[in-house]
Structures are given as C-alpha cells and as structure tokens.
Design brief:
This protein is of the alpha/beta class. The protein folds into two domains: about 5-130, Aspartate Aminotransferase, domain 2; about 135-225, Aspartate Aminotransferase, domain 1. Helices cover about 35% and strands about 15% of the residues. The chain contains six helices and eight strands, in the order αβαβββααββαββα. The protein has helices at about 5-15, 40-50, 100-105, 120-155, 180-190, 210-225; strands at about 20-25, 55, 80-85, 95-100, 160-165, 170-175, 195, 200. The strands form two sheets. It has a four-stranded mixed sheet with strand order 1-2-3-4. A four-stranded antiparallel sheet has the order 5-6-8-7, with helices on one face. The radius of gyration is 19 Å and the shape is globular.
Length: about 230
C-alpha cells in the first residue's frame, strides 16, 4: 500500500513487474480524500509506461455522484477497468465491471459467473438511472454540490473546513467529535456518518433539493454545536 495522492511515491514503487495499480478516484471510507489535481493523470502515465493496468474503484464515486458520470473523467483519463455499484441502479442490488476491449477479452465463457448476474429488475433500474443522468441530473449534481460545499464551509465553531467533489462531501472537524456529531445529528433528524474521528461524510441523493441542502447544513451546524 502507498500513501494516497503521492505521485512520486508511486513512481518509485512501480516497475515493469507491476501487474496493476488499484485505487479510488476519491477515497470514501478514508475520509472523502480528494487527490491533488493531476494525480490520476500521473497514475495513468506511469501505468502506461510500465505496462500495468490502472484499475479504479468507482463504487462510491461513479454514476454522477461527483458531478460527472465517473469521477476519473474530471481529469480526462481512461482506466483499463473500473468497478461500479451502489448508485448504478438507484438502490436496487447491482454491480458491474467495465473494461477496455483488450482487457475484457481475458473473460471467456466459464471464467466468471454470478448467480444473480443480469437480474432483469436491477438492470431495468440501471437503465432508468442512465436516462436520468442523461436528462440533466449530472448538471443538477454540479450545482447542488457547489451549494452544499458553500454551506458546509460556512459552518464555524469546531469545524475545520470541508472537502469533497460533487455530492460526496465531508465536514472536517477540529476535534475528535465525529461519532458524537453523527449521533446528535440523528437525534435532530439528519443521517450522516463518521469516516474517522474528525470527518463527517455527507452523500445525499442526487435528487436532493436546495431546501433540503440548506436544512441539512443547519441541522449539522446545530449537531456540531451540541455534540
């Protein structure tokens, strides 16, 4: 394992014997960590140079969550393969692996199977999600993400700022209060979660309204003040 976002560290570790580099374009469980601008492009460059596959986990970040279909598109790169789930079917259970043609060819009949793969209900839900994204939902996520970012940044007190991309965001705290803030927020009617002692993550529905964003920010500020 390497430190996330450290391109020079990766450059020193990767070689022609490296099979693949696997990472999230934005780390979710690690605290909504957004890499430095240009990091993903550098990873792509190094993987290409050494003949290693660039594999992305877009389970949390894909399907419009960050204001693009896929988070890696923010840097205009293309991975060799990526995983999708969660938002891909709007809550119905579905996961997917997407790969370039030359990579996908390693999967021949019999090399991979899934008991519930291709479930018609889940795949129909995924088609509906794709329709919504194409009909302007991604642009809505971009606007909503900016609004949520601004509201979180304005929370004072024991807040140390905010970070994230699109509608995957985090309120960073100045003290080890995240679990207490999450518990107090739940009492007030707001569901968020702690991804570390000082990080509260917010991942609202992509259809969240401006009024709901403002209400959530007010409740989170109240929860922080009372934690």
């Amino acid at each position: 394992f390497l430190d996330y976002g450290e391109a020079q560290q990766l450059a020193s570790a990767i070689s022609d014997k490296t099979c693949a580099v696997l990472l999230e374009p934005v780390q979710g469980e690690a605290g909504v960590m957004v890499p430095p601008r240009g990091y993903l492009s550098r990873v792509r460059e190094l993987c290409t140079k050494h003949g290693a596959l660039m594999l992305l986990d877009e389970v949390q970040t894909g399907m419009g969550r960050t204001g693009a279909y896929f988070a890696h598109q923010q840097e205009r790169i293309e991975p060799d393969a990526m995983t999708l789930a969660k938002g891909i079917a709007g809550g119905a259970p579905l996961g997917a692996l997407l790969a370039r043609d030359d990579v996908a060819k390693v999967f021949t009949p019999g090399t991979h199977a899934s008991t519930f793969g291709g479930n018609p209900l889940a795949t129909a839900a995924a088609c509906a999600v794709m329709d919504l994204l194409a009909e302007g939902l991604i642009e809505r996520v971009q606007r909503a993400g900016e609004r949520l970012s601004g509201r979180l940044a304005a929370i004072g007190g024991r807040s140390a700022g905010e970070r994230g991309m699109g509608l995957l965001r985090a309120l960073v705290l100045a003290e080890d209060l995240a679990p207490k803030v999450v518990a107090k927020a739940r009492e007030l009617g707001l569901l968020v979660n702690a991804v570390g002692d000082r990080v509260v993550r917010l991942a609202p529905p992509l259809t969240v309204s401006d009024e709901e964003i403002d209400r959530a920010a007010d409740l989170l500020a109240e929860a922080l003040a009372k934690a």
